[in-house]
Amino acid sequence: MTIGVGLLGLGTVGAGVASILTNPEGRHPMVAELALRRVAVRDQQRSRPVTLPPGSLVTDPLLVVDDPAVEIVVEVMGGLEPARTLILRAIAAGKPVVTANKAVIARHGEEIVAAAAEHGVYVLIEAAVGGGIPIIEPLKQSLGGNRIQRVSGIINGTTNYILSRMADEGAAYADVLAEAQGLGYAEADPAADVEGGDAADKIAILAGLAYGGTVSRAGIATEGIDRLDARDVAYAAQLGFVVKLLAVAEHVGDNADGSASLDVRVHPTLLPTSHPLAGVHGVNNAILVEGEPVGRVMFYGPGAGAGPTASAVVADILNIAGIRKVSGPQAGLDPLLAASRWRRCTLVDGSRTSHRNYVRLRTRDEAGVIGKIGTCFGDAGVSIQSIVQFPGHEGGAEIVTITHEVLEARFRDALAAIKALEEVEAVAACLRTL
Ligand code: NAP
Ligand code: HSE
């Protein structure tokens, strides 16, 4: 039995998918049953790294979605529109969809999931988070018996590649970003990577699956690595930490109406070198899932790039093809695979959460400054774990403090008092610490 596949996009990911579908030897026999029927691109004249079936390349995506020979639509074009409209059109036509597009799922997932349920089709998104790492299926199915306490991880390959090269070789930020773009890791607009938006899309998706409800994408506190100073990476290393862009979704408690209260955020974070995520380098991603009763499970692997992402896309296509094989196209939806929502999720006010912090201050270099800073922290009820002075600009000092875990609101009070000290020129950096 052959199943017709239509591809929307033949860029980094699309070409990777086409390359698997057109070279099935040595893979699972069902790959040979997937026939690439139509492929949409913007520029039909551009040379492509893969040989397609004759006549399959088009520039009108509707020719893919509406082609009766296309039974599964694979959306790997990216962006919000026309991707959203094309996904909804495929669903309305009763065609299952596979997508790697986290931006569209994080923002329009609720609408897409509802449409898919109404029309009885699957929308599978394994490639949307973690590139080649299987994390979506485990959260939906293998870990379904758990109460999930926390999902945290490094889920943007581009920024992890940049941070690793900066830390290991002192490489310049702009040079490494250009390299990551050349390797096909970065988004079409790399601001999504470096400003943290891509990781926020992904943690919204993971939290939605872990906690069974839609998470407001707009409500996720997001900070990227674009304003990170190389000095903080270097100071962190001297203090026994590595800096990583971390995405976290944590179950804080349940509200009176039964909805789950979550703390979901993305920010550069100092990790002790002994932390399991500290050793994740280059384009690799890793996701730690903490649940009851399973404990701590870590998923690790390449988080971006053509091959790893195509591996995840094809896994989803095979999942759908396998179900069709045994149950036919009109079979009902498996609620686990379809990721049906089962509760509401709300986000907590960040000022009511607690964290450890790293603060770098630019100060005058004179007697009593560290004492005054310590007093500001103490008066606000912030306990200090360590305070170190580094040589600063001429006549000045850089004072780095690491706090114990403290309520964010208290920490902000302490910072306000520190900023008001005449000896303090600037709060130069403020980072979360694990
Ligand atoms: P890409 O290299 O920019 O490829 C996009 C493809 O879509 C291109 O072939 C482009 O045509 C085509 N396209 C875009 N808009 C179109 C339109 N309106 N009509 C027809 N064709 C259109 O992007 P990518 O890196 O493969 O990423 C694709 C998706 O996968 C994105 O959602 C991304 O977030 C996601 N993703 C990417 C990675 C990764 O490592 N790159 C990993 C996981 C998920 P032309 O070739 O003619 O320009
Ligand atoms: N731009 C993304 C990243 C692609 O670097 O992680 C994988 O989703």
From TrEMBL:
<dbReference type="GO" id="GO:0004412">
    <property type="term" value="F:homoserine dehydrogenase activity"/>
</dbReference>
<comment type="pathway">
    <text>Amino-acid biosynthesis; L-threonine biosynthesis; L-threonine from L-aspartate: step 3/5.</text>
</comment>
<dbReference type="GO" id="GO:0009088">
    <property type="term" value="P:threonine biosynthetic process"/>
</dbReference>
<dbReference type="Pfam" id="PF01842">
    <property type="entry name" value="ACT"/>
</dbReference>
<protein>
    <recommendedName>
        <fullName>Homoserine dehydrogenase</fullName>
        <ecNumber>1.1.1.3</ecNumber>
    </recommendedName>
</protein>
<keyword id="KW-0486">Methionine biosynthesis</keyword>
<dbReference type="InterPro" id="IPR036291">
    <property type="entry name" value="NAD(P)-bd_dom_sf"/>
</dbReference>
<dbReference type="Pfam" id="PF00742">
    <property type="entry name" value="Homoserine_dh"/>
</dbReference>
<dbReference type="InterPro" id="IPR005106">
    <property type="entry name" value="Asp/hSer_DH_NAD-bd"/>
</dbReference>
<comment type="similarity">
    <text>Belongs to the homoserine dehydrogenase family.</text>
</comment>
<keyword id="KW-0560">Oxidoreductase</keyword>
<feature type="binding site">
    <location>
        <position position="102"/>
    </location>
    <ligand>
        <name>NADPH</name>
    </ligand>
</feature>
<keyword id="KW-0028">Amino-acid biosynthesis</keyword>
<feature type="domain" description="ACT">
    <location>
        <begin position="358"/>
        <end position="434"/>
    </location>
</feature>
<dbReference type="InterPro" id="IPR016204">
    <property type="entry name" value="HDH"/>
</dbReference>
<comment type="pathway">
    <text>Amino-acid biosynthesis; L-methionine biosynthesis via de novo pathway; L-homoserine from L-aspartate: step 3/3.</text>
</comment>
<dbReference type="Pfam" id="PF03447">
    <property type="entry name" value="NAD_binding_3"/>
</dbReference>
<dbReference type="InterPro" id="IPR001342">
    <property type="entry name" value="HDH_cat"/>
</dbReference>
<dbReference type="GO" id="GO:0050661">
    <property type="term" value="F:NADP binding"/>
</dbReference>
<dbReference type="InterPro" id="IPR019811">
    <property type="entry name" value="HDH_CS"/>
</dbReference>
<feature type="active site" description="Proton donor">
    <location>
        <position position="202"/>
    </location>
</feature>
<keyword id="KW-0915">Sodium</keyword>
<keyword id="KW-0521">NADP</keyword>
<dbReference type="GO" id="GO:0009086">
    <property type="term" value="P:methionine biosynthetic process"/>
</dbReference>
<feature type="binding site">
    <location>
        <begin position="8"/>
        <end position="15"/>
    </location>
    <ligand>
        <name>NADP(+)</name>
    </ligand>
</feature>
<dbReference type="InterPro" id="IPR002912">
    <property type="entry name" value="ACT_dom"/>
</dbReference>
<dbReference type="InterPro" id="IPR045865">
    <property type="entry name" value="ACT-like_dom_sf"/>
</dbReference>
<keyword id="KW-0791">Threonine biosynthesis</keyword>
<feature type="binding site">
    <location>
        <position position="187"/>
    </location>
    <ligand>
        <name>L-homoserine</name>
    </ligand>
</feature>
